[in-house]
Amino acid sequence: MTSQVSSPAEQADGTVVGEQRKPVGAKDVRRLDRVIIRFAGDSGDGMQLTGDRFTSETASFGNDLSTLPNFPAEIRAPAGTLPGVSSFQLHFADHDILTPGDAPNVLVAMNPAALKANIDDLPRGAEIIVNTDEFTKRAMQKVGYDTSPLEDGSLDGYHLHPVPLTTLTVEALKEFDLTRKEAERSKNMFALGLLSWMYHRPTEGTEKFLKAKFAKKPDIAAANIAAYRAGWNFGETTEDFAVSYEVAPAATAFPPGVYRNISGNLALAYGLIAASRQADLPLFLGSYPITPASDILHELSRHKNFGVRTFQAEDEIAGIGAALGAAFGGSLAVTTTSGPGVALKSETIGLAVSLELPLLVVDIQRGGPSTGLPTKTEQADLLQAMYGRNGEAPVPVIAPRTPADCFDAALEAARIALAYRTPVFLLSDGYLANGSEPWRIPEPDELPDLAVQFTHSPNHTLDDGSEVFWPYKRDPHTLARPWAVPGTPGLEHRIGGIEKQDGTGNISYDPANHDFMVRTRQAKIDGIDVPDVEVDDPDGAKTLVLGWGSTYGPITAAVRRLRAAGEAVAQAHLRHLNPFPSNLGAVLKSYDTVVIPEMNLGQLATLVRAKYLVDAQSYNQVNGMPFKAEQLATVLKEAIDA
Asked: Residue 182 and residue 434: Cα distance in Å, rounded?
């Protein structure tokens, strides 16, 4: 997205908004409608923490925002190297926004590697704040700089702010009983203070956070707060920063309510807790830690007061096995993982299909195959979720569209699992899991009723008049079998992976019965009640862009740009991927051109082409990063003009 620091800028909807200035003493304050900031440094420089704190203060200020954390898979990648660069991008605005932004207006580079790894993403005229203390000859040579980029003119097209962050931090902390190395660790707080001054961010929340984080080390807390304040004061007093910027709260972007900043994984965890309360069932999570799903396990483990039980298993198979056992015992059962873990869980997912028990399989997708790119995002597990089991083992698949939407998606996954007695896949991804945005906290009466009726008495009468319990006697509307909690008198029954006889649940090898059971399980999934897909088409377009999951933000931003430029384009986004909404076929056939952008090699496009015989055009990206709005706008314009 175009820089707004020094010239009028285009909003996400395509309108142009100029900047406004008002003098305050010796410094100017320029009003902007939005800003994109990227913090970058070594993975040990605290860039994620810095970004998180800036985001939290921005959320409390009332801006709309979207974030993109980007970090190496290694816990501590080699210092000063390009693979070791960690970054955090934040887009905040006084209006509704949808993405972390295409290109930063401001880059904070803590070392030469951070500068080199990110400089190509910056538009000309962007501001660059560099820590000059790290631009030593050895550090520059390590990343391929023959001469200093701060002196050779290569940055002349940018507004460069050379700041000796390390030296200033150490000087600010000289009264503390810290070694130089210990003092240097606070340089990220100095940078945070400087940026907080530049963009008029509140400071109270960060100081409170630091006191709490280092409550057992008050000297360290005090040092970090001192560094933070020193950064703020530096911005206020130095002549190099003659201008600060103001981005007003997004007062009209949100419906009335109480909001908080939330990441996708946190929203998903809260959604699972809400689902268990709405169903009046204990929540059980059986999981094995795996990036980028581990945060859900970490968060749920904190909420025993809500009846949550978490079990960190020795491996992926044990995790889902325990969860399936909990489902048999009457819990809302969940297992969380990423693509490699889904492969290991596949046999037990098939068992859950056969047992017809509710189970939520949460897959936070990442780059693959195999171990792949653990900290990068991808949408390449859709076909695995659909078909990655032996035999005919259909399962519902749903996908959230934004970090906050992960809350609602968790509730919807629970609704389907509980109502239809089936495992359900919830496909999030690393972009949603780690990204954040404002979330309106719903009122309790806005949540769906997920109440479950367990079976407490016999449900079938034999020819001789005796009453018995048939574990596979189905609800005529949902085809769901009854759920009887073990230990209920008179409802003892046997379960297992071998094919069951219809009704009785007895082991059966009868070919006709197997055919009937396979078709019945498929019919149950096909008959799940899902809402029609909604189409946004105000201009009667001939081109439809269809998406799913986390592509929602970039697609919608691209569509807004095209419409602002006078182009007609329709948009639809799928939450339910199995079964598809019943009106999807009619929607697709009502357009001349259908474009499906995905962060894979065309998995939804394959399903759509096979089921509806629509010649959908696939646009794909698998570089571990989300789409950019301008990139998609260009592709869609070409499709419109074709």
From this structure: 28
CA atoms within 13 A on the CB side of 626: 33
Q: What are phi and psi of 631, to 5 degrees?
A: -60, -50
CB neighbours of residue 124 within 10 Å: 9
Structure tokens at 448: 């769906």
DSSP conformation letters of 124-188: TT-EEEEEGGG--HHHHHHTT-SS-TTTSSTTTTSEEEEE-HHHHHHHHTTTSS--HHHHHTTHH
Amino acid occupying residue 602: G
pLDDT at 588 over 90: yes
pLDDT at residue 24 tops 60: no
The strand pair at 64-70 and 127-131 is best described as unpaired
> Residue 610: phi, psi to the nearest 5?
-70, -40
Residues 6+ apart with CB under 8 A from 137: none
- Note the pLDDT tens digit of each residue in 340-375: 999 999 999 999 999 999 999 999 999 999 999 999
- Residue 251 — very low, low, confident or very high, per pLDDT cuts 50/70/90? confident
pTM across the whole model = 0.93
The predicted structure's pLDDT at residue 26: 59
- Distance (Å) of CA 619 to CA 568, 604, 606: 19, 11, 12
Q: Residue 368: phi, psi to the nearest 5?
A: -135, -170
Instruction: Say if residues 435 and 406 touch (Cβ distance below 8 Å).
Output: no
Average predicted confidence (pLDDT) for the chain: 94
**Cβ contacts of 85 within 8 Å, gap of 6 or more:** 40, 41, 42, 43, 72, 113, 114, 117, 118
